[in-house]
């Protein structure tokens, strides 16, 4: 459904995005479905980027001859050859990939969720005891390695978050984040991954019922989109 012969999501033509949206509206319906178009397409862009990232791992792990021969399931052979030769092996992509790897290596408190969305981890934590996880739990579960925090900076910040949550239990998660990490930008909240904004959390979307509904809907959306032929 989503084209592969482009260098980035921004290169996808508008009529193709319209087709993608038509497929979504064929599967889902709500009173405000058209008002959700931008949000859903942004989510699909993240899924698409993650999927392409998993394809790039294949390219890095094998000799070129084997890469071209072992076409991933569901991918057209000619599209795969274009993606490998014209995109993954281009100088521009390799420079950006190297730069991104270096930037990730410099992160002081990196998350360790792999390709698993932070929102999915929050959902799983929510289901364990029926209550929304606090910020200390979210921070630990998304940054642990072998069930412990390894960087000194990460441990120090975790202790700070724990103390704040303990001493002021009435604070909601966005308030804890802003006390520990400063004001958050409009489109991203530290510790929550993409797709959750400070405004949403401040407006009450972090309550038990609303958070469960939101995360459960996103989980179902992920599964449906993954099953849709590309």
Biggest sheet character: none
Strand pairing plus helix content: what structural class? Answer: mainly alpha
The SSE order reads HHHHHHHHHHH
Low-confidence stretches: 205-211
Q: What percent of residues are in strands?
A: under 5%
**Mean of pLDDT:** 82
The geometry reads as: globular
Quickly count the helices.
Answer: 11
Explained architecture:
It is a single chain. With 230 residues, the chain is an all-alpha fold. The chain has helices at residues 14-27, 37-61, 64-69, 77-88, 91-105, 118-129, 135-143, 152-167, 173-181, 198-205, 208-227. The radius of gyration is 20 Å and the shape is globular.
Short synopsis of the structure:
The chain is mostly helical and 230 residues long. The protein is 63% helix and 0% strand.
Features:
0% strand; mainly alpha; 230 residues
Please render the helix and strand layout as text.
Blueprint (H helix, E strand, L loop, with lengths): L13 H14 L9 H25 L2 H6 L7 H12 L2 H15 L12 H12 L5 H9 L8 H16 L5 H9 L16 H8 L2 H20 L3
